[in-house]
Write a structure and sequence with these properties.
By secondary structure, the protein is an alpha+beta fold. The protein is built from 3 helices and 8 strands; from the N terminus they run E-E-H-E-E-H-H-E-E-E-E. Bound molecules: zinc ion. The site of zinc ion has 4 residues, from loops.
Length: 133
């Protein structure tokens, strides 16, 4: 199946739950066993998997990332968003998820998130589904 593209309007900073779109793409593909890749082609955003039950977890993750990668006067990047580039690389821009029985193998508390670190923007992400054979 062709790589599926999704568009997303993001806030200034935030974790947007995209799990449903991944589940639907797998369903459409008809793949029962394989893998799916969730990817974004951005340098100040990322893709991560983490808790979907308590919204305070993603809030705390954003807070932790802000503390871990604060803006620094020594940064030279003229665009002024080096902290967003650092957070993007910390989260990574893709995740690979195994598929069995037509479903992504996710723990009950796991959700897939698009991470925005330099919004608001119009963003894109991609889902690629591949069968075993
Ligand atoms: Zn930049």
């Amino acid at each position: 199946m062709k790589t599926k593209e999704f568009k997303l309007d993001t806030p200034r900073e935030g974790f947007l739950n995209i799990t449903r779109s991944v589940r639907e793409t797998i369903k459409e593909s008809g793949v029962q066993s394989g893998i799916c890749v969730v990817y974004c082609a951005h340098t100040t955003a990322g893709i991560t998997i983490n808790e979907n039950a308590d919204p305070d977890v993603v809030r705390d993750m954003l807070l932790g990332l802000r503390k871990a990668y604060p803006d620094r006067p020594e940064f030279r990047h003229a665009e002024g968003n080096s902290t967003a580039h650092l957070k993007s690389s910390a989260m990574g821009v893709s995740k690979v998820i195994p598929i069995e029985n037509g479903q992504p193998i996710l723990g009950i508390w796991q959700g897939i998130y698009f991470c925005e670190f330099d919004g608001p923007r119009s963003r894109k992400y991609y889902v690629k589904v591949m069968a075993d054979e």
